Amino acid sequence: MKTSLCLCGFLSFLFFSLADLVKLAGFLLISWAAWYLGCLLAVFVPKETITTSIANLKDIGKKPVLRAPVPKRQKCDHWSPCSPGNYAYRILSGGGKEKLAKICFEDELLISEEKGNVGRGINIAIVNYKTGKVTSAKFFDMWEGDHSGEMVTFIKNAPEGSLLLMVTHDDGSTRLKNEAKKLVEELGSKEIWNMKFRSSWAFIAAKGFKLPDNIQKEKVRFILFSLCICLYIRSLP
């Protein structure tokens, strides 16, 4: 009886040992196969592909991010396009002695440091309203010398049908005489009499016709910093 029990116990131990060996062998075989497959992937599949696939897996479930396109620069540094039949312009006053004034019309600099025709005082550009082409541009020093009369003559000589774009750099009021102020007032300025030492001032006017009522024609500040008028106006048919 004892012999039978021992034999059964031995057979049971042998049976379980063989089963464990089979499991161990299967585990080792699977592990080796996984290792071998990994080696094959490392050799034959580009690293960039694996990286991209992992990144794509990480992005699963994330909400898509909608990105607005970067706005494209338009004429005279506007960020929205000018509708057909309109002129784009920007009038920028000077800020101190270093930051010079600038007048841009239809993406062309009429007065600027780059063109070498900007200076202390009042800078004026005259544009043919029908063609959109500049006819004359000049600055008048209002700190030294007597240039107020020259400015009056310059404005009076502007042809009918002209746009006059005016802007200050540094000081535009000290030697500006009443005759010049009255002439600019007749062109539509409401601030020319209020200008003080080193006021920043920008103004657009029309000679021989009327500008639309819905555009800003003048801007002034009584401290020294840059300001600009940047709008669109309708061109003549």
Automatic annotation (TrEMBL):
Protein name: ILEI/PANDER domain-containing protein
Gene Ontology MF: a single term: carbohydrate binding
UniProt-listed InterPro entries: FAM3, ILEI/PANDER_dom
Family: Belongs to the FAM3 family.
UniProt keyword annotations, A-Z: Disulfide bond, Lectin, Secreted, Signal
Signal peptide, first to last residue: none
Any Pfam family hit: ILEI
Keyword set includes Disulfide bond: yes
Annotated ranges, domain ILEI/PANDER: 120-208
Location in or out of the cell: Secreted
Top-level lineage group: Eukaryota
Cellular component per GO, a single term: extracellular region
